[in-house]
Amino acid sequence: MQIALVTFMSRSGSTFFSSLLDEYQSFHVTIETDFFKQLSTVSPDALGSPASLADRFEHSHLANNLFQRDRFLALAADLPVLTHQNVASCVLQAYFETEVTGAVLVKSRGPAWYLSAIAERMPELKFVHVVRDGRAVLNSQYNTRRVYKRGNMACEPLMPARIWRNWTSYVDRFRERFPGRILEIRFEDAVAEPEVTAARVQKFLIGDTVLVGKDGTGVEYRDKIPERELSLHENVGQSPIAGNVDKWKQSLPQNDVVLFELIAGRALANKGYVPLYVTGSRFGWLVRPRVLWRLATSLLRFGLRRMENAFYHLYRVASGKPLGSSGQDDSE
Fold first, then answer.
1. pLDDT per residue over 217-256, tens digit each?
2. Domain regions of the chain by residue span
3. pTM of this structure
4. Looking at the domain covering 2-243, what would its CATH class be?
């Protein structure tokens, strides 16, 4: 069983990517989870016993029912020694309730800033990065309500632009540090050539390009999604509309696109996404009254959202609820 971590920025098309792979027998995809984030914090000396690990995972509310304690303990009982690799294998075998062959892809919750830590602890682990035009991500976040907090995922372009820029740069640095261990999939390419994309992933993970379909497209993936989060994954098993790939060009206000490109223009170009407006000097855009006004209102909303997040975390700490648990990352 080859394990791979699927990482992405929220609203980058990971649901489509997951349901696409779910069409083929070689792939098994988990729901979004913080499992590897939790595992990356455990040092090799602290792995302890299966029971102590089970207590640790349960206490951290290992996201979205991924962790099945009884089945995990039964599988781990015969292990002569615990390693990050075989602990992950037992957790995933328990999750799928059957012996799994081929590739298991574990979806992270949004940007996984712990990639390097888990890569060091699990040398056999591979990674798949799903990337989408940051402006399309912004447009989707504008139109998607958060399920564990009030409001939409994004209310201004500054924070999403910073996160998208920093995240894609982080992935590039990770690729340089761990060559050959991460495959990048552009959402737009997956929509245009889904079978070619699936074959690329299969070759990267298990060295075979012959795809074999299976019954129940998307069912294995969708059935595990918590009911409260189904609104974020409405398109499981459905083919995307190719014309919607560039829908953001008609939906996003020009000033929002300009601000996004002022912050993340170079990162967009590095990923093959052509800036629409900010192609030369940035100063000329910053002195335009409408852009300045949008910048001012965005900074205000940016500050209010940060304050909201801070008070939310203080509330969780005061109420004894763990941070980083299931459903706590609605893509700020």
1. 445 566 666 565 655 556 655 566 666 788 899 999 988 9
2. 2-243
3. 0.82
4. alpha beta
